[in-house]
């Protein structure tokens, strides 16, 4: 039998773990290469994971609802054509299960004996080594195993930093798992401080102790928690109100927006764009694009121009990381898509290497698959600059929030006919005319982008859009 591992994939630079949402295939099922076999969920995206090879799914090691680290093997596929039989692989799995059952009783009774007879120290020391020695050989669940099944690496790290025993933290996650929210709430409520005080001096006053350990540990993780954790305030429900839990997209959007506002000091600048030149290009190319099956919207023109102008303004295509500035080597445009309800931002990677038609087709493709929930994880990651278009719904202008990991976002308003004053280039006389125009807003991170930088970027963008090249 030739077995292939199916690991929990890396879904993004900052993702350390994922949750198995649903198994699409069961043990014994035949699978084809690249056929989806399970769905996973992370804090950024839900995705279907394809089979790495054709064969038979012979073992599932991570059940639905379980959260494991990236790289953990979640299943095995037998690539031999004739190896369809799953029972030989499945039978060993239940056998270890009965063995842990008799063991928990002595393990639970040992601490009781220790607590009941603290006087003779020699009797309190032997139980831990005994438990440790029997675990590897007999397959009994160890304390470390219990921690791994009841918590994630992030939770264990927080517990270690604050000296918290995870066993004492009530878990609200799947099968009693301790979530990040659970342990942070436990620490904030003084639980960690109480544990430390009880271990050091049982007789110490409980009222004075909690503040000291929390205050001592706060500086080390205060900023990390501030930039990573969101706790929404709760409000009383009135008689005529209806209460519904947020769906996952809304919950994640809410968290990301709060964190984005915490991280970057937002400033916005505005400019008005004349679309007369773009209308001329669209009219001249309409038949040619129709024959090619291409769909080139106003947004495609804006994305094309932005991708070129960003080359000239590396600060707008950068991000702050600690005390450093990361200047992105690629122009990856995040294009906000309305899911009604909900919002997602797929990414046009290396947009500055695509032509106008290429960008137009790519935007349509990403938006269509976003609404059909068929985007791959890589297609919503890595944006270096974002564009949102509330104007398509009639909004005059907006003040968009800058996504984390970027320094700016462009908001495009409604393109409408307006009466404006134009100057004749030949004789310099002014006259009133009707032109299609739109207001653009640039939201930027004032830690790295100054108002003058934003003004120069918008001016250059205006120049390119109002004198759009016909060969783009």
Structure explained in plain terms:
- With 472 residues, this protein is α+β, with helices and mostly antiparallel strands.
- 36% of the residues lie in helices and 21% in strands.
- The protein has 14 helices and 19 strands.
- Strands 9, 12, 15, 16, 17, 18 and 19 form a 7-stranded mixed β-sheet that branches. It has a 4-stranded antiparallel β-sheet with strand order 1-8-6-3. Strands 5-4-2-7 form a 4-stranded antiparallel β-sheet, with no helix packed on it.
- The longest helix is centred in the middle third of the chain and has 18 residues, at 211-228.
- The radius of gyration is 29 Å and the shape is globular.
- The chain starts with a strand and ends in a 6-residue tail after the last helix.
Mean pLDDT: 80
The percentage of residues in β strands lies in: 15-25%
Largest sheet: 7 strands, mixed
Classify the helix fraction into a percent range. 25-40%
First-residue to last-residue Cα separation: 55 Å
The number of helical segments is 14
| Number of E-type strands | 19
Helix/strand structural class: alpha+beta
**Rg, Cα atoms, Å:** 29 Å
| Poorly predicted sequence stretches spanning 5 or more consecutive residues | 82-138, 203-217
Q: Identify the overall geometry.
A: globular
């Amino acid at each position: 039998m030739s077995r292939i591992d199916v690991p929990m994939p890396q879904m993004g630079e900052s993702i350390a773990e994922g949750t198995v949402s649903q198994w699409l295939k069961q043990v014994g099922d035949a699978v084809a290469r690249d056929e989806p076999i399970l769905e996973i969920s992370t804090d950024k995206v839900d995705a279907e994971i394809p089979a790495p090879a054709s064969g038979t799914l012979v073992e599932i090691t991570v059940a639905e609802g379980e959260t494991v680290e990236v790289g953990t093997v979640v299943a095995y596929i037998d690539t031999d054509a004739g190896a369809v039989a799953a029972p030989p692989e499945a039978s060993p799995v239940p056998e270890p299960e009965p063995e842990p059952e008799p063991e928990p009783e002595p393990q639970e009774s040992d601490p009781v004996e220790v607590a009941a007879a603290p006087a003779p120290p020699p009797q309190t020391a032997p139980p831990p080594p005994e438990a440790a020695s029997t675990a590897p050989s007999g397959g009994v669940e160890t304390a470390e195993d219990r921690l791994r099944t009841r918590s994630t690496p992030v939770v264990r790290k927080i517990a270690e930093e604050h000296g918290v025993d995870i066993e004492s933290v009530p878990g609200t996650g799947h099968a009693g798992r301790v979530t990040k929210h659970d342990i942070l709430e436990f620490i904030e409520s003084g639980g960690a401080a109480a544990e430390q005080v009880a271990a050091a001096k049982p007789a110490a006053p409980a009222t004075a102790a909690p503040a000291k350990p929390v205050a001592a540990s706060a500086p080390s993780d205060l900023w990390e928690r501030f930039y990573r954790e969101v706790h929404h305030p709760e409000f009383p429900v009135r008689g005529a109100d209806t209460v519904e839990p947020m769906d996952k997209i809304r919950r994640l959007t809410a968290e990301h927006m709060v964190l984005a506002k915490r991280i970057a000091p937002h400033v916005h600048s505005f400019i008005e764009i004349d679309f007369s030149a773009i209308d001329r290009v669209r009219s001249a190319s309409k038949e040619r694009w129709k024959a090619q099956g291409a769909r080139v919207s106003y947004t495609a023109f804006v994305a094309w121009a932005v991708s070129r102008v960003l080359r000239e303004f590396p600060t707008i295509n950068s991000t702050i990381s600690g005390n450093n500035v990361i200047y992105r080597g690629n122009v990856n445009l995040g294009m906000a898509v309305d899911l009604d309800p909900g919002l997602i931002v797929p990414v046009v990677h290396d947009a500055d290497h695509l032509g106008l038609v290429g960008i137009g087709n790519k935007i349509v493709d990403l938006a269509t698959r976003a609404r059909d929930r068929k985007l791959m994880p890589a297609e919503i990651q890595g944006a270096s600059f974002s564009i949102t278009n509330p104007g398509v719904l009639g909004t005059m202008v907006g003040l968009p929030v800058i996504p984390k990991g970027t320094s700016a976002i462009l908001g495009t308003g409604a393109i409408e006919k307006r009466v404006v004053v134009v100057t004749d280039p030949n004789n310099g006389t002014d006259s009133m005319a009707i032109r299609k125009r739109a207001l653009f807003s640039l939201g930027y991170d004032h830690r790295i982008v100054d108002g003058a930088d934003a003004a120069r970027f918008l001016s250059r963008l205006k120049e390119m859009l109002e004198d759009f090249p016909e060969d783009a």
